[in-house]
Each structure stands twice: as structure tokens, then as C-alpha cells.
Write a structure and sequence with these properties.
The complex is a heterodimer of chains A (about 375) and B (about 375). With about 375 residues, chain A is α/β, with parallel strands linked by helices. Chain A contains 15 helices and 15 strands. The longest helix of chain A has 24 residues. Chain B is about 35% helix and about 15% strand. Classes of the chains: A alpha/beta (about 375), B alpha/beta (about 375).
Chain lengths: ~375, ~375
């Protein structure tokens, strides 16, 4: 396989913001042609959503990050003529994604049943916030709100802290990833059986899936997993699991038996605890360890720990990480030229195929950048 | 028809990253066979977490490995290795998450396996890739969070670096390897060609941070600064965060500060008219908001904010969540049964296909439960 695995596939992306578009980005990096269908005037609302007020041309840097390697086709889906052109595109497409709230696509006439009539082999993939039934179906599918409602805010931080959300849009990212999985599996079936598929995911189901270890534990005990009161790393895990302050920085210590740890760090006070106490007395143990570790620099502790093969690493920020040969070896950064004179750096696809890293220098499209060309291509195909 | 009907996956992986990928493939219809060592099998079987166990076994092993089969083989014994090679010759996918070099020593590198089965999709997860100074370090979730800058994004600015309390690196690496496997299986369905798919936990956790890393790469390498008050996202303006109320907590996402001030009856907020200030003065704004929200119950605030289409939600723990109609209607709980009759409640696959939920009732396998059946089915000698 000397080419990208999804070469030859066309994806129509009616999705906005992050969840659906992150799925489109992955499909694009794996070789699909991804065409964003955007409303004239503003397009994907993410174009106007900046973080830290960073912009690149007319659109936010955020939009450029999520939508590189795609094309843009501007169409007003409420205008019958433009809708007819989009339907022509649907005839030719392999996959269509959207993340509108339930009911919106039916109103436009692009619900699954209608799209299936146009193209029975299509993979129709949709993201909702909370599914399509029940009292929450019309609620906004926003990442932080989903974290709040799904129990996830009780996983991070210490037990006496307020609920602590993940500082990254975890629900959007996971849900986009699940959508990709469903789409690709459906494409495999289509290749064998010639049938299309409806793939549905929701932000809430994706976040519950993410917590499957916690929820299985909860269903069995009916006890909420509690965060540790000292340096919580994961509510399900015993001491020493967590991040500790050293004299000059921080270190993460993962699973290790208490005796090995005590010996390696010369921490006498730890030796009186048996391994059976590592969970139930974890706060006490972790407090002792915390007091011990602040006395010396992180390099000293890491040397002691690594000498014994104990699972520990320095805590780094991005500047420190960027200096590491291990980071540089990854070649994770790639440069895109947005327009003459404007370059940005972003990350590449994390999957390697046949030993090759997947780079793509194609930047995010301007709104409607490819409308003319795509229309012309369709006209040529129309008998 | 199941999406992945007739796909056979030989899974050598342990713990969470690889096995979570195997679980997804199984739920979408693949036959997933865990190759386990005779003494104890997948280490995750013995990884007791919390104080909750299911009949003496780890709850999480059951969650991660349901809907799979177990085939015991000692890969250091020639007879067993030969059997596994016979299996591989008939498989569609092979998956492992050993450190670099282990599969080479066993004679199961991609080059070797390709000789047995040229059209196989060979997928591997490493901690830090296959080159560079860290390749022999353990690929462990907390440690990857530690080195990747991730711990500087959650919690408030005066808190220590705070890891995400769920094994997010494992889960993402598993998700990415699944994507790679499926994309190459699709191509194989057209051309018959196999492929090598490689994912590392390091690359996966960098990909997870792609939005904020791209800011960092392009803003002169400025490090993220977490909000001092109720941090929700280091790069997002007030009010984004979780707030304490008179009886619980309330989450507020993006929204206009003066509009919030008016709705909540908090006059002090109405003077923040310039939306730029919502970022640069977010700690000040969030302090005012935090003090005000303490004066009323969560339900009280929601009754004002929801009708005005403000992005808000109550904060729930599992006990609160599972009582909600919005949770129940998802039918997310799944009861599975193991080979010795044990019933376990866990969650189902989050993907729906053609309007159907994917709900296999097959529990995690006992160690070696399927050796005989698999030997017969694949004519292993």
C-alpha cells in the first residue's frame, strides 16, 4: 500500500465546531477528500471562534487547526437551487457527516431516509449531544456541559476540591473519534455487501464509554469512586499513583509496590505500610511521600527510581517537552502555508501507515474556495 | 450484518490501550482472540483497582475484555508459537502493545508475520514510538500525561499540575489504532494488501492537544495559564467553568457576561461590556460570579438560565446521573455473562449502527477458555 488507505473516498462535512470536523480531519489525513458544506456569509461558526484572539486571515487559528486538508463548498441549504446542487454532491459522495441538533436535517430534507433515496450506498454519520430521545435531546451539546452532567468532573483534582473538568474538549474529541470508527467499519461492510449505513454517536454516550472502568466499578458497588485527598491521579488507583512536588519541580509516579518505592527513595516512614493498605490508606501514604519528596530535586528522585525500573517521569510543560530529543524524533509538527507570507505550525496525524508519518501541507479552505470548481466537475458528470 | 463480520483479530495486547481497541472491534462484529500467557494471562486480570472486585477479579478487566475469547499460549515455547503462527496465517488483524524489540525477539515482527500472512493488518501501540531515547521507557498513562504538558491544563492556576483522572492516553491511543486498523482493512477489502499501523501514546496525547499546541507553536511559545478561579479551559474566557451554588454545582460554558449579569441579578457583571475583557479579566469576573452563584440553588439558577438559552448544566456524580431520565433513555448499561455464569453490569459500545445499539452479552473470557474451540475452528495442529 503505497498510498493513503482512504484514497478515492469523498466525505461531505455538514458539521461545525470541533466534534464532527475533528472526524473529518482524521478521514482527510487518512486520504479521503473532505468537502465542508458551509453556509454563505459566515460558514462553519468555528471560523469566528478564536482562542487567545489568534487569527490567520479571515478565520481563527482554531478553525485552521481543525479544518486543514479540506475543501469548502458554500451553499445555502434553505435555497432550493443550492440544495439541489448539494443533493447532486450527495449522489457522488461516500460519506456525509453532520452535528446539527435533532430535527434540523429533517427540516432541510436531508435526514437519513431522504439521503438514502438519493444515494443508498452512502454512510450517513451524525453526532448529537444527548441522543435523539429523552428530555435532554434539545440541550446544547457543549463539551463542558457534558463533562458536568456525565460525572467526569469528579475524576480529577483532590476529593476536597470542587468538581474539576478536563481542560480540553474531551467529549468532542472522543465523539469525533467514535464517529470515525463507525464510518470506517461501515465502509468495510459496504465494500463487501454494497450497503450503506446510518452511524450515530452522541457526546454523552462517548463520555460514558470513556468512563467505562469507573462506571463498571460503580454499577458493581453503587459507591461513587472517590478522588484521593492528596495528589489524586486516578480515583480507582492506590498509592503512590499521582504527581508530587520535588524541590525544583514535579514528578509523576505510577503503579509500584510500596516496599520497592520505600527502598528506592530511602523513605523509612513508608516501610510500615503493607501492600494491602495501598488503597485504603492511600491518603496517609501519599502525604508521607509528599513530605519526603519536596526535600530533593526531581532529577535526584528520577535517578533513584529509574535505577530500579520504577515507573516515574518528570512533569514537563510544552517548552521543556519541545527540548527533548524524544519529542524532536517524533516529527510531530508540520508547517502549512495559508497564503503567500503566512505560515503556521500545527500537529500531524498521530497514525503511521507502513512506517510512514502522515503529513499534509494543505491548509484549511477559505469559505467557498472550491464551490466553482466542484460545481463545474458536477456539471461535467451530469448527462 | 455486523459491520466487521468475518474479521478475525489476534490480540496480544495487555492492560488498557490495546485491549480497548480490541473491545471496539469486537463490539462492531469482529472475532477478537486474546493471546495470553499461561501464568496469569493479561496482567490486567490481576490489577486490582479500588476496593471493588467482582468475585476476586478486577472489575476493570471485565469491563475491558468482554466480548472476547482467550487463547493461552507460551510464546517462548516452540509448539505454542507454532500454533499462534497458524492462527496468524488465517487472521485479518494482529495487535500488540509490547515495548519495541519484544515481538522481534519472539519472531513475530511485522516482517516475519507478513511472510506468514501477506495481507494481514499488523497494528502496534508503543509508549514513545520506535526511535529516540525514550523507547524503552514504560508507556504508562500518568507518565505520558506528565511529559506531554497535559497536566498544566486542568484545575486552577495555583494548584499543582493536575492529571486527568481517567486513563485518557490509553483510551486515545486505542482509539487511534482502531482508526488505523479500520482504514487499512477498508483498503485491503479493495486491493487485498495488508499494512503496518503504528500508534504511540506520545503522539496520541499530542494529537489530543492539537488545538492548544497549535496556539503555543504560533504565539511565540507562550505557555498556557490556567484561570485562577474555577478553571474550565486555560484558553477560554469567563464564565467558562464549574461554580458552587447553595446546594451543589453549576457548569457555565461560553456566554455574554452582561447578559448573564442581567439574568442572574448580578449588577456587578453588567459593567463588563467589552468581550475582550472576558478573557483578560476573567479571574475578576469569575470571582464576582462565583460569590453570586452561592446565593441560590442549582435548580434555581437553571430555571432562569435555561429558558434564556444560556449554555449551562447541573454538575452530577454517578448517583445523580443514573437517576436521570436522560441517562436511562440511552440504555447505556449492559449486562454480560462470563463462562462461569457470573453476571456483570458494564457499559455498551457508544456507536449505534442502522438505528441499533450494539449489545453483546458475552462476558470477559476465563484464561484459556477458548483454546479447544479455536484449535478446532482454525484447524490448529
Amino acid at each position: 500500500m503505497n498510498y493513503l488507505p482512504l484514497k478515492g473516498l469523498t466525505v461531505l462535512e455538514l458539521s461545525q465546531y470541533l466534534s464532527g470536523p475533528s472526524a473529518g480531519l482524521r478521514l482527510a489525513d487518512l486520504g479521503a477528500r473532505v468537502i465542508k458544506i458551509e453556509r454563505p456569509g459566515g460558514g462553519d461558526a468555528c471560523r469566528q471562534l478564536s482562542i487567545k484572539n489568534l487569527w490567520a486571515g479571515e478565520s481563527s487559528l482554531l478553525f485552521h487547526t481543525i479544518n486543514r486538508n479540506k475543501e469548502s463548498f458554500a451553499a445555502d441549504l434553505k435555497n432550493p437551487d443550492e440544495l439541489a446542487v448539494v443533493k447532486r454532491l450527495i449522489e457522488e459522495a461516500d460519506v456525509i457527516t453532520h452535528n446539527f441538533r435533532p430535527g434540523v436535517m429533517s427540516k432541510i430534507g436531508l435526514d437519513y431516509a431522504s439521503v438514502q433515496e438519493i444515494n443508498p450506498r452512502i454512510i450517513y454519520a451524525e453526532i448529537t449531544g444527548f441522543g435523539k430521545e429523552g428530555p435532554w435531546k434539545a440541550k446544547p451539546g457543549q463539551d463542558l456541559l457534558l463533562q458536568a452532567m456525565s460525572g467526569l468532573a469528579y475524576a480529577s483534582g483532590n476529593v476536597n476540591d470542587d468538581p474539576v473538568p478536563f481542560g480540553i474538549a474531551i467529549a468532542d474529541i472522543l465523539c469525533g473519534s467514535h464517529l470515525v470508527q463507525g464510518i470506517l467499519a461501515a465502509l468495510i461492510r459496504r465494500q463487501k455487501r454494497g450497503v450503506g449505513a446510518l452511524i450515530e454517536v452522541s457526546l454523552l454516550e462517548s463520555l460514558l464509554d470513556f468512563q467505562f472502568e469507573f462506571l463498571t466499578t460503580y454499577y458493581s458497588s453503587r459507591k461513587q469512586p472517590q478522588r484521593s485527598s492528596v495528589n489524586n491521579g486516578n480515583p480507582l488507583l492506590s498509592a503512590p499513583y499521582g504527581i508530587y512536588r520535588a524541590a525544583d519541580g514535579f514528578i509523576g509516579i505510577a503503579m509500584v509496590s510500596l516496599q520497592r518505592l520505600a527502598t528506592s527513595l530511602h523513605c523509612e516512614a513508608l516501610k510500615r505500610f503493607s501492600q494491602e493498605e495501598a488503597f485504603n490508606k492511600r491518603d496517609e501514604i501519599k502525604a508521607i511521600l509528599s513530605a519526603h519528596l519536596v526535600s530533593k530535586p526531581s532529577a535526584y528522585w528520577l535517578f533513584q527510581l529509574h535505577k530500579e525500573g520504577i515507573w516515574a517521569m518528570e512533569v514537563m510543560d510544552w517548552k521543556q517537552m519541545k527540548q527533548q530529543p524524544a519529542y524532536k524524533t517524533l516529527d510531530m509538527e508540520q508547517e502549512l502555508t495559508l497564503y503567500p507570507g503566512k505560515k503556521i505550525i500545527t500537529t500531524r496525524c498521530p497514525i503511521r501507515i507502513n512506517g510512514k508519518k502522515l503529513f499534509s501541507s494543505k491548509p484549511a479552505p477559505q469559505l467557498g474556495e472550491h464551490t466553482g470548481k466542484i460545481k463545474k466537475d458536477i456539471l461535467l458528470k451530469t448527462p | 450484518m455486523d459491520l466487521l463480520e468475518d474479521i478475525v483479530v489476534i490480540d496480544f495486547s495487555q492492560f488498557l490501550s490495546g485491549p480497548s481497541a480490541g473491545l471496539r472491534l469486537a463490539d462492531m462484529g469482529a472475532q477478537v482472540i486474546k493471546i495470553e500467557k499461561p501464568s496469569g494471562g493479561d496482567i490486567c486480570r490481576q490489577l486490582y483497582v479500588s476496593d471493588v472486585m467482582i468475585e476476586g477479579e478486577s472489575t476493570i478487566f471485565h469491563a475491558i475484555n468482554r466480548n472476547k475469547q482467550s487463547y493461552v499460549a507460551d510464546l517462548k515455547e516452540e509448539v505454542d508459537l507454532e500454533k499462534v503462527k497458524q492462527l496468524l496465517s488465517q487472521a485479518d488483524v494482529m495487535l500488540h502493545n509490547f515495548r519495541p524489540g519484544v515481538m522481534e525477539r519472539l519472531g513475530l515482527s511485522y516482517q516475519e508475520v507478513k511472510k506468514i500472512n501477506p495481507s494481514i493488518v499488523y497494528a502496534e501501540i508503543t509508549g514513545y514510538g520506535t526511535e529516540g531515547p525514550w523507547i524503552n521507557l514504560p508507556g504508562q498513562d500518568l507518565l505520558l500525561q506528565s511529559v506531554s504538558g497535559l497536566t498544566w491544563l486542568s484545575h486552577n492556576s495555583d494548584n499543582m499540575p493536575t492529571p486527568m483522572g481517567v486513563a485518557v492516553v490509553d483510551i486515545l491511543a486505542g482509539t487511534h489504532v482502531t482508526q488505523g486498523i479500520l482504514a487499512t482493512l477498508y483498503q485491503r477489502a479493495i486491493t487485498g494488501e495488508g499494512a503496518l499501523v503504528q500508534v504511540s501514546m506520545f503522539e496520541s496525547i499530542l494529537d489530543f492537544q492539537f488545538e492548544v499546541l497549535t496556539c503555543f507553536y504560533n504565539d511565540g511559545n507562550q505557555l498556557p495559564v490556567r484561570s485562577a478561579v474555577n478553571n474550565g479551559h486555560a484558553y477560554v474566557s469567563a464564565p467558562y467553568g464549574i461554580y458552587k451554588t447553595a446546594d451543589g454545582y453549576l457548569a457555565l460554558a461560553m456566554g455574554s457576561i452582561p447578559v448573564l449579569g442581567r439574568l442572574l441579578g448580578c449588577g456587578d457583571l453588567e459593567r463588563y461590556q467589552d468581550s475582550q475583557d472576558w478573557f483578560t479579566r476573567r479571574d475578576e469576573i469569575k470571582s464576582i460570579l462565583a460569590a453570586h452563584l452561592l446565593t441560590q440553588t442549582t435548580a434555581g439558577w437553571l430555571s432562569v438560565l435555561e429558558p434564556a438559552d444560556i449554555w449551562c448544566a447541573p454538575v452530577m456524580d454517578y448517583e445523580g446521573l443514573v437517576q436521570q431520565e436522560g441517562y436511562k433513555v440511552l440504555n447505556m448499561e449492559l449486562t454480560v455473562q462470563t463462562g462461569n455464569g457470573l453476571n456483570i453490569t458494564t457499559t455498551r459500545c457508544p456507536i449505534r449502527v442502522d438505528g441499533n445499539m450494539l449489545t453483546s452479552s458475552v462476558g470477559a473470557p476465563l484464561l484459556g477458555e477458548h483454546n479447544r474451540e479455536i484449535d478446532a475452528r482454525f484447524s490448529i495442529k
